[in-house]
Specification:
alpha+beta; Beta-lactamase; five-stranded mixed sheet; 26 helices; about 40% helix; elongated
Length: about 800
């Protein structure tokens, strides 16, 4: 038994030892696994996520301040400043001071000091909150009295307005913070999968929650100094930083218009002193705060958490909203700098800001100002006057569709013939005028539309020289050929497609008889050009009109794309579409609808195209450009608003027969210089004829036009009821040179709903020609109208059609 017991005991010992060995092995394996997991976690924290954690630590250990970059200056062709940044100051509040965190943090520290650390540990969470609440109101009141009240006083704003600003900041920042955290989570999930440490992200503060946000802009140095003292007293609540303010010297300017050479009824030896609002503002443009889509296009905070120093921050940055400020945004915008301060060592690291580049325009702001003044109604030319309407044979004043004294809106464009440079482009009313209008007036007057580039109108008779060039080029009329004017185009119909001198119902049955090209242009004979359009057919005529630029945007430098929301039908979701604004291309007819290939040829619509009526529109810029092409004898040079670098501009020769160009020149000159010319004179009350263009020392070629306008709603008798009246737009387009007979500038003038082109637009064109002569644009070679600039410039960079970008001026 003892032996058996002894054997049993030995076996049991072996089993116990084996079991212990297995347990030890399991423990060792478990320990090894734990150590391996710890090692892997350590490796991930120290290697894989090292940069991520360093970034988080640096955010709290390094204070960053952004250094503003000045925007490039916009200058006119002679160097005059049109828009420039001016150093200013901005007062900002840290987000903690806006959302209440600043007062809460101060209250917590005060409560801790009051209770003591030992006492604080003994308090329950609710008791701690109560203690903090007891101090918080006092700190909030201090912030209100010492910081917010001075902000309201310095900015001249009410408490309600300040609270609205702060509320808007909070709404924007919280939205940005939510987006930031979601993007951070997505980035970590893509990197680590299911092991992504996204739990800490919810407690992480977004960059916009650590930033200061501007509450007062463009403050002077005295105000800035006062707030700098507050910034020292209230660290973490107030900051004062240098900023830039955009100034436009010609937003408001003075001008005097001399009226010695005006038509007799509005002539005076006394000039008119004017205050002009928004000279060239459609061209120069304005700035606005950035929208979400601007930030999305180029964000300051990049997807990887970095920074694009040229990117946009919503609520902080400005962007060009229209005009050159918009189209040249990428060139004008500078790159901000960055000052990084190590809060532990005090060391500073600085990335300098880079200013934007200056841009030189082709505009002569002095000429622009003079022409702007001519469109002011109080001057007397952009207003309905009795001499424009006329008198009947008994001497009684005729009644026009609009009463005498009605103010007129319009546009003027001047192009240098040789270069295609736009010297002036005026639109009335201006953007600045619109800011002073009521909502209803803005809807009616449309000050936001740049009429010179965006207003589309039927050409009317100013198209006739282009029709002659097309007919000659296609061989449907020869040199010296005549067409007889019998008063109406169709032999058996005298009630349609008539000449302007043939009105049987009014007792006028005159005709022009046989006319050649120059005579038809000078007299503006409708029958001659109905016939040419009929011979050409709509296909060939429209083809030639497009060669002159109709139906296509000129792309002179102000066109840009914009997102527009399309109205939804029924339950359909509204969609965005991209439109181009800033410049318009007008329209040409669809040749399949009225041409020889149409189911039934529409000869009436075809003929109307010959006198610039029907489904045909263009802008004042396109009109001036087409006449500049005529002045170059059929050579197209694209118009531009940007001063170009030295070098030849691209051009296209349309190869128009020389005799046709000569006929156009002769007819256009007769139109303004011969007694039978449609743009030669107007008749006064006593029957005296007064010449419209009596400018000495120049040679003028021009054409008047009267184009049917859409019906106009007008309250004619002031009873509050608007009536629909039918009016015409008044055109004058031509070119002008010195006594040497070389055309140097092309001009277009339109007065909306003005009526007679010669009597309404003509006097304004005459004054524009005087202004060009006074400013030296009509002299011989080497004058201001050539490609050479009057001041040296250093070329730095090009934009689009190679604009001249000058070096910065010290």
């Amino acid at each position: 038994m003892a032996g058996i017991a002894s054997g049993h005991s030995a076996g049991t010992g072996k089993r116990t030892l084996a079991s212990s060995s297995r347990r030890a092995a399991w423990l060792i394996a478990l320990a090894a696994t734990t150590l391996a997991l710890l090692f892997l976690q350590l490796a991930r924290l120290s290697v894989a996520e090292y940069s991520e954690h360093v970034k988080n630590v640096e955010r709290f250990m390094v204070e960053s301040r952004w250094l503003p970059a000045s925007r490039g200056t916009i200058r006119d062709r002679d160097g005059a400043i049109l828009a420039q940044d001016q150093t200013s100051w901005a007062v900002s509040l840290q987000y903690d001071a806006i959302d209440g965190s600043w007062a809460r943090a101060k209250a917590r520290r005060a409560a801790l000091e009051a209770v003591g650390r030992d006492g604080w540990r003994e308090l329950s969470p609710d008791a701690r909150d109560a203690e903090i609440d007891r101090h918080e109101e006092a700190f909030a009141q201090v912030l209100d009295d010492r910081v917010l009240a001075p902000i309201m006083a310095a900015g001249g704003i009410s408490r309600a307005e300040l609270e609205a600003r702060l509320g808007a900041i909070m709404t924007r920042v919280e939205k940005q913070a939510t987006s930031y955290r979601e993007n951070r989570k997505d980035a970590l999930r893509r990197k680590y999968g299911g092991d992504a440490p996204i739990g800490v992200i919810e407690k992480e503060r977004a960059p916009s929650q650590l930033d200061a946000h501007v509450v007062l802009e463009n403050v002077g140095p005295e105000v800035a100094f006062a707030f700098q003292q507050l910034a020292v007293e209230f660290p973490g609540a107030v900051t004062v930083e240098p900023s830039m303010r955009r100034i436009r010297p010609f937003d408001r300017t003075q001008a005097t218009v001399e009226r010695n050479n005006f038509p007799t009824p509005v002539r005076s030896s006394r000039g008119v002193d004017l205050t002009l609002e928004g000279v060239a503002d459609h061209i120069v443009g304005y700035m606005r705060g950035v929208y979400a889509e601007d930030v999305a296009a180029r964000p300051f905070r990049t997807a990887d958490g970095g920074e694009d120093l040229k990117g946009y921050r919503e609520g902080h940055d400005q962007i060009g909203s229209r005009g050159v400020e918009r189209t040249a945004e990428s060139v004008l915008r500078g790159t901000r700098g960055k000052l990084m301060t190590d809060l532990d060592s005090g060391d500073e690291q600085r990335i300098e800001s880079n200013p934007g580049l200056d841009i030189v325009l082709t505009i002569d702001i002095g000429l622009q100002t003079k022409l702007h003044a001519l469109l002011m109604p109080e001057v007397g030319l952009a207003r309905i006057e009795q001499y424009q309407i006329g008198w009947d044979k008994d001497g009684n004043p005729k009644q026009g569709p609009l009463p005498v004294g009605t103010d007129l809106k319009g546009a003027i464009v001047v192009i240098a013939v040789e270069t295609g440079e736009i010297l002036a482009a005026v639109s009335s009313p201006t953007l600045a005028d619109g800011r002073a209008m009521s909502k209803d007036d803005r809807a009616r007057e449309l000050p936001s539309m740049f009429r010179a580039f965006e207003g589309v109108y039927p050409p009317g008779s100013i198209l006739k020289p282009l029709v002659l060039c097309a007919a000659a080029s296609e061989g449907v009329i020869g040199h010296g050929d005549q067409i007889e004017c019998k008063g109406h185009f169709f032999p058996d119909r005298d009630d349609m497609l008539r000449c302007h001198v043939f009105r049987p119902t009014e007792g006028r049955t005159a005709t022009h008889g046989p006319l050649d090209g120059p005579g038809a242009i000078a007299r503006s004979c409708n029958i001659f050009f109905y016939t040419l359009a009929d011979r050409l057919g709509v296909d060939r005529l429209v083809g030639w009109l497009t060669k002159f630029g109709l139906g296509a945007r000129p792309d002179a430098g102000l066109a840009y794309e914009r997102q527009e929301q399309m109205p939804a039908d029924g339950n359909a979701q509204a969609q965005l579409r991209t439109i181009v604004v800033g410049e318009a291309g007008g329209s040409v007819p669809d040749v399949t609808g009225i041409g020889v290939n149409a189911p039934k040829r529409d000869r009436v619509s075809e003929a109307l195209l010959g006198i610039g009526q029907g489904s045909l529109t263009w802008t004042p810029l396109q009109a001036a450009q087409a006449y500049a092409t005529l002045a170059r004898r059929g050579v197209v040079v694209a118009p531009t608003i940007f001063k170009l670098m030295v070098g030849e501009r691209p051009s296209v020769d349309l190869h128009i027969p020389r005799w046709a160009i000569d006929d156009c020149f002769e007819g256009l000159h007769q139109s303004v210089s011969a007694s039978y010319g449609s743009g030669h004179h107007f008749t006064l009350h006593d029957g005296t004829r007064e010449q419209i263009f009596d400018v000495p020392g120049v040679r003028i070629w021009g054409k008047t036009g009267t184009a049917t306008a859409p019906p106009l709603k007008v309250d004619l008798d002031g009873d509050g009821t608007e009536e629909r009246v039918q009016t015409d737009h008044a055109w004058w387009v031509g070119f002008v040179g010195g006594e040497d007979g070389v055309p140097r500038c092309a001009i277009s003038v339109i007065l909306e709903n003005g009526g007679s082109g010669g009597k309404v637009a003509g006097p304004i064109a005459a004054e524009a020609i005087r202004a060009l002569a006074e400013r030296g644009y009509l002299r011989g070679s080497g004058d201001r109208s050539g490609n050479r600039s009057t001041k040296p410039r250093v070329v730095r960079r090009s934009l689009g059609r190679r604009p001249m970008v000058s070096g910065r001026v010290s």
